[in-house]
Amino acid sequence: MIVPALLLACSSLMAQNNNVLTAREIKDRWILLFDGKTTNGWHSFQKTSVAPGWSATNGTLQLDPKVQDSGGDIVTDGEYDNFELAIDWKIAEEGNSGIIFLVNEDKQYDATYLTGPEYQLLDDKKADDNKKPSHLAASLYDIIPAEKEVELPAGEWNHTIIKLKHGELTFWLNGVQTVKTRLWDTKWDELVAQSKFKTWKGFAAFHKGHIALQNHGYHIEFRNVKIRAI
């Protein structure tokens, strides 16, 4: 199902000017999380700056895993609870990454995924982690598989929307809804109990947190990263 708001957001894939807000987006209270030129607004997880593997290059926020000490995941400086996130991404062949949200930076957690659920980013055709349906692109990683496979091939731009409002979570990829669920109710507890996260006490425990872009050791690029409170 494609909704009007997503049609507006998906226009970024065709836009000539990336990393800018339209007049309509400004009216609708969107803000940019990436200005196209710097890594301002981001830091490496539990650090004060961005590790050298991440850079603003050619209008994209990208990870070069070949850089020595490429660093781990990067997270937003801000924390978010009820939000709509829009982001374009392009992954290398065999690539694996993710968008992790509700991330807590308390020192007792040494990785973003220990607290944050993940919107999976993957080269579905060639990545090693493509054997389990809930590990494919646009899935809620290891919990709910994407309802439809609508990912464009590695090396092409895909457009993601993540919407979280009062526990209701919805994913879209390229204008198509792929996941819809509710966090923190009995059914959610059952889903988590069937996943790899079943014994992780901090997983999805926080109702507000940072948004992370994952360093999984593969080149990936992001652009048109924007968010609004809902």
Keywords:
5-stranded antiparallel sheet; 9% helix; Jelly Rolls; 8-stranded antiparallel sheet; 3 helices; 32% strand; 230 residues; globular; 13 strands; mainly beta
Descriptive account of the structure:
The protein contains three helices and 13 strands; from the N terminus they run ααβββββββββββαββ. It has a single domain (4-229), classed as Jelly Rolls, CATH 2.60.120. The strands form two sheets. Strands 1, 3, 4, 6, 9, 10, 11 and 13 form an eight-stranded antiparallel beta sheet that branches. With 230 residues, it is mostly beta strands. It is globular, with a radius of gyration of 16 Å. The model has no long low-confidence stretch (mean pLDDT 94). It has helices at 4-10, 23-27, 186-193; strands at residues 31-32, 42-44, 54-57, 60-63, 74-76, 83-91, 96-103, 118-122, 158-165, 168-173, 176-182, 210-213, 220-229.
**Strand tally:** 13
Annotated CATH architecture: Sandwich
**Cα-to-Cα separation, first versus last residue:** 21 Å
What spatial form do the alpha-carbon principal axes imply? globular
Radius of gyration using CA atoms only: 16 Å
Q: What's the CATH first level? A: Mainly Beta
Find the CATH topology. Jelly Rolls
User: Mean of the pLDDT scores?
Assistant: 94
> Could you give the order of the helices and strands?
HHEEEEEEEEEEEHEE
Helical segment count: 3
Fraction of residues in β-strands? 25-35%
Low-confidence stretches: none
* Fourth-tier CATH superfamily name: Exo-inulinase, domain 1
Number of domains: 1
Structural class determined from secondary elements: mainly beta
How much helical structure, as a percent, in the residues?
A: under 10%
Largest sheet: 8 strands, antiparallel
